[in-house]
Design the sequence.
């Protein structure tokens, strides 16, 4: 039986992105292909910057750790700058194709998407009910935060350049995998602490049941967001642990 919400206790609203605030198709059909097609050119131009160099070093070590367990990884070469860029780009494409939640990958993707947002090639696609809900919750005095596997940079870019305009004035905090995995209880405890709220004062919205389960174990209030057309919609709608919504219009109206 799904636990009922206690609206009077809610001080903070924590939102997932993919499938919750924006269509899954935007990630897989637009963002991932954009980064995949431009990674080699981006590294050629920016690999000597400190931040990109740090991403590359983390990717190299991540690949080394995986090589002991996974066969068929792209080769990594260090015999020249060109070889390093070529092999790094191949590994990044390999990770993107498998939707790996690797912090260094997400960091690099965010930097590539930044160029796309600045040039106007990219605009963050959000569901029609999102902007009005963010405005409503802020009027109610709620703190709004985002938790996504995408980097904080990528999150800010998406909401700053959304199809509904700049939504960042409504969002107070952003959390990514540097906080912890999205399906681990400790991540949500850290987020509640960072928000200055007890877990029971935080409402978490996501379309992924395993994430909601982890948040619920900390004492957070949860809502299962089932958007039409998402891959999770069929199975998610059968869940009875978390109250189900199909639109943000239903949340603290």
Sequence:
């Amino acid at each position: 039986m799904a636990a009922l919400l206690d609206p009077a206790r809610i001080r903070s609203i924590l939102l997932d992105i993919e499938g919750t605030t924006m269509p899954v198709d935007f990630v897989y059909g637009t963002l991932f292909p954009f980064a995949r097609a431009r990674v080699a050119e981006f590294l050629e131009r920016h690999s000597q910057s400190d931040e990109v160099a740090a991403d590359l070093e983390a990717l190299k070590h991540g690949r080394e750790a995986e090589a002991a367990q996974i066969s068929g990884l792209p080769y990594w070469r260090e015999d020249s700058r060109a070889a390093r860029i070529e092999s790094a780009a191949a590994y990044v494409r390999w990770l993107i194709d498998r939707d790996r939640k690797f912090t260094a990958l997400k960091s690099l993707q965010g930097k590539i998407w930044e160029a796309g947002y600045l040039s106007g090639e990219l605009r963050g696609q959000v569901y029609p009910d999102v902007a009005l809900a963010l405005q409503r919750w802020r009027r109610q005095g709620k703190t709004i935060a985002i938790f996504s596997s995408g980097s904080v940079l990528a999150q800010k870019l998406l909401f700053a350049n959304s199809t509904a305009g700049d939504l960042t004035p409504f969002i107070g905090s952003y959390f990514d995998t540097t906080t912890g995995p999205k399906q681990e209880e400790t991540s949500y405890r850290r987020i509640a602490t960072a928000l200055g709220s007890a877990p029971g004062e935080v409402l978490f919205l996501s379309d992924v049941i395993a994430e909601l389960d982890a948040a619920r174990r900390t004492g957070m209030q949860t809502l299962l967001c089932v958007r039409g057309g998402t891959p999770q919609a069929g199975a998610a709608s059968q869940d009875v642990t978390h109250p189900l919504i199909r639109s943000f219009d239903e949340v603290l109206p």
Observations:
- The longest helix spans residues 24-46.
- DSSP finds nine helices and six strands in the chain.
- Residues 21 and 126 are 6 Å apart (CA to CA).
